Amino acid sequence: MKTEIIPAIIATNQEELDERIEKVSGHAEKVQLDIMDGKFVQNTSLYFDFKLPQGPVYEAHLMVEQPEEWIEQNWEKADVFIFHYESCKDARAAISLIKSKGKKAGLAINPETPVEEIEQYLSELDQVLVMTVNPGFYGSPFLPETLDKVRQLRKLNPEMDIEVDGGIALETAKDAYEAGANLLVCGSYIQKSDSPGNAIKYLKGLTGG
């Protein structure tokens, strides 16, 4: 099972998006696009008709109230679609929609949502994302208790891709990896670094990469 460091991109316009993708270009195989509608979470990000350069694998992390609607309108923009259990009336229908487009499906859970709520869907998913912060902001404080959910998921499905998102930096990446996460999303630590490439290398080194 491959371990990856995935830079997260928050942007409010095309220029900002281009600049932030350029910062990590060539340093990561996969980039996460943080889509926020200002309703499910307080902030907005990438909630416009953006354009993406070719190159990395893109995963869309949908922090929006109606993920199915966004997927229907933008399914060509990403390779992986991760929607929040808390925002979706019918998780199984959303998974089926993503799969029908030939894409990979991921399900995200907020810090307060127990694993038991999504256990019935695990066999249908390509990955699960555990929020290790309250979603919606770069630089939110890491919640170490959320790693218990990572451990629980890893026991339930030893081969599944388990992703953590929020507060991942030098002091937290190793803990997340040792808990069982193999996909680590990192936003502010990479974007604020003078050398994003080195920041990604340091994080890889902490996770056996």
Summarize the SSE layout with pairings:
Elements: E1 4-9, H1 14-24, E2 30-37, E3 44-45, E4 57-63, H2 67-74, E5 80-84, H3 91-100, E6 104-109, E7 127-131, H4 147-156, E8 161-165, H5 170-179, E9 183-186, H6 188-191, H7 196-206
Parallel strand pairs: 1-2, 1-9, 2-4, 4-5, 5-6, 6-7, 7-8, 8-9
Antiparallel strand pairs: 2-3
* Sheet/helix structural class: alpha/beta
Please indicate the percent range of residues in DSSP E strands (runs of 2 or more).
15-25%
CATH fold name: TIM Barrel
Biggest β-sheet: strands ordered side by side in the sheet: 1-2-4-5-6-7-8-9
What ranges have pLDDT less than 50 throughout 5 or more consecutive residues? Answer: none
Distance between the termini: 12 Å
What is the level-2 CATH architecture name?
Alpha-Beta Barrel
Number of domains: 1
Instruction: Kindly state the percentage of residues in helix.
Output: 25-40%
Main sheet makeup: 8 strands, parallel, barrel
How many DSSP H or I helices?
A: 7
Mean of pLDDT:
95
Instruction: Write down the Rg.
Output: 16 Å
CATH class: Alpha Beta
What does this structure look like?
The protein has about 210 residues and is of the alpha/beta class. It has helices at about 15-25, 65-75, 90-100, 145-155, 170-180, 190, 195-205, and strands at about 5-10, 30-35, 45, 55-65, 80-85, 105-110, 125-130, 160-165, 185. It has one domain (about 5-205): Aldolase class I (TIM Barrel, Alpha-Beta Barrel), CATH 3.20.20. It is built from 7 helices and 9 strands; from the N terminus they run E-H-E-E-E-H-E-H-E-E-H-E-H-E-H-H. The chain has an 8-stranded parallel beta barrel with strand order 1-2-4-5-6-7-8-9, surrounded by 6 helices. The radius of gyration is 16 Å and the shape is globular.
